[in-house]
Amino acid sequence: MSRALFPGSFDPPTIGHINIIERAAALFDELHVVVADNISKQYLFTPEERIELIEKSLPGVKNIVYAVHPGLTVEYARSNDISIMIRGVRGAGDFSYEFEMAMTNKLLYPQLEVLFMPTDPRYFLIRASQIKELAAFGADFSSMVTPPVLEALKKKFPEVKA
């Protein structure tokens, strides 16, 4: 059985995240979507809410295992005997950062291989932080998230016009 993991904050999940998850799930028998729970960060949604939003955005995808992990991603990979990590990249800046992280992770868990998956060009400019900022200003960002995520953001930001 081929297994991989796709870690992230997913706060909130964007259509870019959903696209990467769909594409990665099609490549592996089992894809672990691992939601970060870093106590030093302040999130808009709880880890459980983020998982629920991803699940609702991918109702037809059945080979996904969802997990919340508060520690290093490589520790999740090692403890679940997963040796492939998927990382989405939008451009050179993302790739540079992700490459350095991949090298660090390789030092910590030599069996781990990182596969870089370029974003679909339609989602190149979408960032979760950008969506939160647009929501705070009441802008229409509906083309950047799935309907379940849009509804959840409207509850957090009543001024959203979408």
Automatic annotation (TrEMBL):
<feature type="binding site">
    <location>
        <position position="41"/>
    </location>
    <ligand>
        <name>substrate</name>
    </ligand>
</feature>
<dbReference type="InterPro" id="IPR014729">
    <property type="entry name" value="Rossmann-like_a/b/a_fold"/>
</dbReference>
<protein>
    <recommendedName>
        <fullName>Phosphopantetheine adenylyltransferase</fullName>
        <ecNumber>2.7.7.3</ecNumber>
    </recommendedName>
</protein>
<keyword id="KW-0547">Nucleotide-binding</keyword>
<feature type="binding site">
    <location>
        <position position="87"/>
    </location>
    <ligand>
        <name>substrate</name>
    </ligand>
</feature>
<keyword id="KW-0548">Nucleotidyltransferase</keyword>
<dbReference type="GO" id="GO:0015937">
    <property type="term" value="P:coenzyme A biosynthetic process"/>
</dbReference>
<dbReference type="Pfam" id="PF01467">
    <property type="entry name" value="CTP_transf_like"/>
</dbReference>
<dbReference type="GO" id="GO:0004595">
    <property type="term" value="F:pantetheine-phosphate adenylyltransferase activity"/>
</dbReference>
<comment type="function">
    <text>Reversibly transfers an adenylyl group from ATP to 4'-phosphopantetheine, yielding dephospho-CoA (dPCoA) and pyrophosphate.</text>
</comment>
<comment type="similarity">
    <text>Belongs to the bacterial CoaD family.</text>
</comment>
<feature type="binding site">
    <location>
        <position position="73"/>
    </location>
    <ligand>
        <name>substrate</name>
    </ligand>
</feature>
<dbReference type="GO" id="GO:0005524">
    <property type="term" value="F:ATP binding"/>
</dbReference>
<feature type="binding site">
    <location>
        <position position="17"/>
    </location>
    <ligand>
        <name>ATP</name>
    </ligand>
</feature>
<feature type="domain" description="Cytidyltransferase-like">
    <location>
        <begin position="5"/>
        <end position="133"/>
    </location>
</feature>
<keyword id="KW-0067">ATP-binding</keyword>
<comment type="pathway">
    <text>Cofactor biosynthesis; coenzyme A biosynthesis; CoA from (R)-pantothenate: step 4/5.</text>
</comment>
<feature type="binding site">
    <location>
        <begin position="88"/>
        <end position="90"/>
    </location>
    <ligand>
        <name>ATP</name>
    </ligand>
</feature>
<feature type="binding site">
    <location>
        <begin position="123"/>
        <end position="129"/>
    </location>
    <ligand>
        <name>ATP</name>
    </ligand>
</feature>
<keyword id="KW-0808">Transferase</keyword>
<feature type="binding site">
    <location>
        <position position="9"/>
    </location>
    <ligand>
        <name>substrate</name>
    </ligand>
</feature>
<keyword id="KW-0173">Coenzyme A biosynthesis</keyword>
<keyword id="KW-0963">Cytoplasm</keyword>
<feature type="binding site">
    <location>
        <position position="98"/>
    </location>
    <ligand>
        <name>ATP</name>
    </ligand>
</feature>
<dbReference type="InterPro" id="IPR004821">
    <property type="entry name" value="Cyt_trans-like"/>
</dbReference>
<feature type="binding site">
    <location>
        <begin position="9"/>
        <end position="10"/>
    </location>
    <ligand>
        <name>ATP</name>
    </ligand>
</feature>
<dbReference type="GO" id="GO:0005737">
    <property type="term" value="C:cytoplasm"/>
</dbReference>
<keyword id="KW-0460">Magnesium</keyword>
<dbReference type="InterPro" id="IPR001980">
    <property type="entry name" value="PPAT"/>
</dbReference>
<comment type="subunit">
    <text>Homohexamer.</text>
</comment>
<feature type="site" description="Transition state stabilizer">
    <location>
        <position position="17"/>
    </location>
</feature>
